[in-house]
């Protein structure tokens, strides 16, 4: 195990928010390591290509990282699998895919990191939620059902691990994140979209809150967004 900078681990470290999170924590003195199924063109720090739903591969990779760098000080679960379709056209496989990507991956990440964080004296575990964490919209039944489950999981973890020194927080991202992909997908003025670097700054603040004022749930949205 190497000693030195604290470790930040971002699961779902794709282009956009994932890489912005790694960049912000790297600027703040952390060792940034990203996990994801596909390596982005531009990477901050280290990146491990791994299927985060694989119950053999994902824990093994994380164990190797912890063995080398020590337990993470900050872990961020940022995976997503968006399915938009009428209910009649949404297959069981779509529900299984969204649940696997967002909930199963979170369970495996928690199992691999939280206990080591407890033994190391604590840290912060942040989960990226969405509008669908609170409200199931038409044609979003698969996505919303997984996001609801992820929010419930996070609540349970917070109540169990806060007394052990791990700050568990759920961040509701109520808006469209400004990425090249989202600009192609949504006909929306970029000025009304969420900037990944601004979200990353909010996560940085969450990770540095004193124990007397921990936030469990934070909702972020553009000033133009209705709610």
Structure notes:
A 7-stranded parallel beta sheet has the order 3-2-1-4-5-6-7, sandwiched between helices. It is globular and about 50 Å long. Helices cover 40% and strands 17% of the residues. The chain has a single domain (7-220), classed as 3-Layer(aba) Sandwich (Rossmann fold), CATH 3.40.50. Helix 1 (17-27) crosses helix 6 (196-206). The model has no long low-confidence stretch (mean pLDDT 96). It is of the alpha/beta class and 227 residues long. Strand 1 (7-11), helix 1 and strand 2 (31-36) form a beta-alpha-beta unit.
List the defining traits of the structure above:
single chain; 227 residues; alpha/beta; Rossmann fold; 7-stranded parallel sheet; 6 helices; 7 strands; globular
CATH topology: Rossmann fold
Overall pLDDT level:
96
Compressed to H and E, one letter per element, the order equals EHEEHEHEHEHHE
Quaternary:
single chain
Main beta sheet: 7 strands, parallel
**Would you identify the CATH architecture?**
3-Layer(aba) Sandwich
